[in-house]
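[09:14] KT: can someone run the structure on this one? pasting the chain below
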Amino acid sequence: LEASGGDPNLMSAYADFALLRLGDPVLAVRTSRAIVAAHPKVPAYRANLVKMLIQTGHLDEAQMAIADLRRVGSVGSQDAPTAELESMLALARKQGAVPSPPSPDSSTSQ
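[09:31] RB: done, structure tokens below
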């Protein structure tokens, strides 16, 4: 990630790589969250985070991230993207997606 120089597009590609090729959902979600943290006003990065959360079974977090996405941009500007994401989330819930695994940010190391 350091080699990306903070380029969100490169980091996003790496998040996909982490999930699909490395089989590391924790790294994928952590990378997606880092992109949103660095660029909180970019709706596309938030939408990508929601998709990653859905793909990794973090369905409750995905619902909260959709609510966050609604607050980005002008009033109503995120209605279509959030409707699509909510459909994806509803389908994941209907298909009986496994309960959300522990969040990668909820480590208990002391």
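[09:33] KT: thanks! Residues 79-94 form the longest helix (16 residues).
[09:34] RB: yep, looked fine to me
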